[in-house]
Design brief:
Strand order of the largest sheet: 1-2-8-7-4-5
CATH topology of one domain: Immunoglobulin-like
Distance between the termini: 116 Å
Oligomer: single chain
Strand content: 25-35%
Radius of gyration: 37 Å
Helix content: 10-25%
Length: 198
């Protein structure tokens, strides 16, 4: 007679196996699921917030600042930021103080007339120049664009007392010249240079 194997004996493991542990509490999967939902919600929220800011930036009209072409031998386009050396080797030196009380000096001849406005300040100068991309030269040395020195927090400070010839040159070549004398007895601490070169 043949022995029949029961279906239960076919599914029994052949060797010793790991002992089954206690069942996982029902609250553990619920907590893990809740944490995953919170993390997903934060990801969606921050993603939408970031996307919203970039979309807003794209919709707003952007003003392009074009680099001004420089005269021959001067910094070219994109090089209008002038950094002074650690030794002060590119800091404009002061000239002898200009004497007299005249506020403007007119010079020239048959080739054309130019005017130079004279100002006095104790510490420095700021610019209100149109266009803002106009290049500023102090004693023929480029110091940057007028937009770099256009607020009370961004004053161009003079290195030493004396007179400085300040030339503001627009990208299309129009320019104005000013003489600013830095002296301790000046009425203004910071002088504002205003010019419309358009």
């Amino acid at each position: 007679m043949m022995e029949q194997s029961s279906p239960e004996s076919e599914h029994e493991p052949a060797g010793p196996g790991p002992e089954p542990g206690p069942p996982m509490p029902r609250w553990v999967p619920v907590v893990i699921g809740a944490l995953l939902v919170v993390i997903a919600a934060l990801a969606v929220f921050t993603g939408l917030r970031y996307r919203g800011e970039t979309m807003t930036t794209r919709v707003q009209p952007r003003t392009e600042r074009r680099a001004s072409p420089a005269p021959p031998g001067e910094p070219g386009a994109g090089a209008s930021l002038v950094f002074h050396g650690s030794e002060g080797d590119s800091t404009p030196a002061a000239n002898e103080p200009v004497s007299g009380d005249a506020r403007a000096v007119i010079s020239g001849g048959p080739g054309g007339v130019t005017s130079t406005v004279r100002m006095w300040a104790r510490r420095g100068m700021v610019f209100e120049v149109q266009p803002a991309s106009a290049m500023v030269y102090v004693n023929d040395m480029p110091v940057g664009e007028a937009a770099q020195f256009d607020t009370p927090d961004e004053v161009y400070d003079f290195a030493a007392p004396g007179s400085y010839t300040v030339k503001v040159v627009a990208p299309h070549g129009a320019h104005r010249t000013f003489v600013v004398t830095a002296t301790d007895n000046a009425k203004d601490d910071v002088v504002k240079i205003a010019a419309k070169l358009e």
